[in-house]
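User: quick one
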Amino acid sequence: MAGVALLVDNITVEFGSFRAIDALSLAVDFGEVRAVIGPNGAGKTTLLDVVSGIAHPKHGRVIFDDTTDVTRSSESDIARAGIRRKFQKPSIFEGLNVHQHIAIGAQGGLRRSLLPGQLATRVDEVLEAIGLRDLAQRSAAELGHGQKQWLEIGMVLASNPKVLMLDEPVAGLTDDETERTVALVRGLKRADRAIVIVEHDMDFVEKVADRVTVLHEGRTLFEGSMAHARTDERVIDVYLGR
Ligand SMILES: Nc1ncnc2c1ncn2[C@@H]1O[C@H](COP(=O)(O)OP(=O)(O)O)[C@@H](O)[C@H]1O
Ligand SMILES: [Mg+2]
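Assistant: Done. Structure below.
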């Protein structure tokens, strides 16, 4: 697959009279890992809300896979199309084990159930990818914070998304857990998938992202490599600091 996985075309989002996103455009290619960074309130989560159908823009369009307009699609239709998101706060089901969580992710949004054999294979692949195979039978509630983040990524990954969005995947993780998440995210990269990551840990971003988009007050302030962002005067002024 080649081309634009996700095109955000000139969107504006308003909450009452407040403009959270202001004529923002963004194109993420298949095969790319894009980080969206910027100060609190810049509009990062709202952008993910628009792409996932939770918020609807006043103007503009969201185009998936070059041709599919999902601007007015429902959350469930967007998920079914292959645009999936891990939220900022982990949502673990009490009483279910790790394996069961991944199985729910694998079945989620499918029109037809997977056959038992297909499901078992898929769950196994995902457990391997997120490094939780040894904990498959463990109650998810007993996992550490980092493991819960990986489980959440696994639940999203299990449906084999074409656009995978991660909101703050390493917030609150130890340095060691963050390093493991670097390896995990690198392993998710595929020619037929785009990955969009919102994150404040700039070292993490530099290790995983092909390009970064810096948002400020609902607009794009900078787009390019993380290395370049670090030396951009405007980015330093509004976000990175001196
Ligand atoms: N549902 C909402 N109602 C009113 N204002 C909102 C709502 N969601 C977000 N905002 C405002 O929009 C701006 C962007 O928020 P958000 O996208 O959460 O920023 P970020 O994720 O970059 O920190 C903020 O000023 C926030 O207070
Ligand atoms: Mg946010």
